[in-house]
Design a protein that fits this description.
142 residues; 3 helices
């Protein structure tokens, strides 16, 4: 039984990989293109793709600088991962920027990820903060 389950899993993996499709920046939703133009001008795109995952699809854009963005199907950003640099200030909600500046002056936000309920950020000092959908701090991890 275990061997059969393993074989079925191996057969399912290539089928799932077929759900990714390369796209051009022009094929992204207008909101995503505007966000990139406003917050990442001059960045060179390494690749962009549409990932079709049940129950929803998302876009992923990776720049040659290693910065990575993820967008919902409608073009609203869900994740900004800048690893080696700061997330653009204008991309971070003002109340979150203010709280980071208050608690960790001099720290930079290197990643921000949001969903319907909360927003999580990572700082260059290895701290992680979680905010509710109104921007109120609900957790700090180190």
């Amino acid at each position: 039984m275990t061997l059969l389950s393993g074989l079925m899993l191996l057969l399912a993996i290539p089928a799932a990989a077929d759900n990714d499709r390369a796209v051009t920046i022009d094929q992204l939703p207008a909101a995503a293109r505007e966000f990139i133009a406003e917050n990442f001008p001059g960045e060179q795109v390494a690749y962009a793709k549409l990932e079709r995952d049940f129950p929803e699809s998302r876009y992923e854009v990776v720049f040659t600088s290693a910065r990575k963005l993820e967008f919902k199907r409608n073009g609203e950003w869900t994740k900004i991962d800048c690893r080696y640099s700061s997330v653009p200030e204008d991309a971070v909600p003002p109340q979150i920027r203010a709280k980071v500046l208050e608690l960790f002056p001099g720290a930079s936000i290197i990643e921000i990820e949001r969903d319907r309920r909360e927003t999580e950020i990572k700082l260059d000092n290895r701290m992680e903060m979680k905010f509710d959908r109104r921007g109120l701090l609900i957790e700090i991890d180190d």
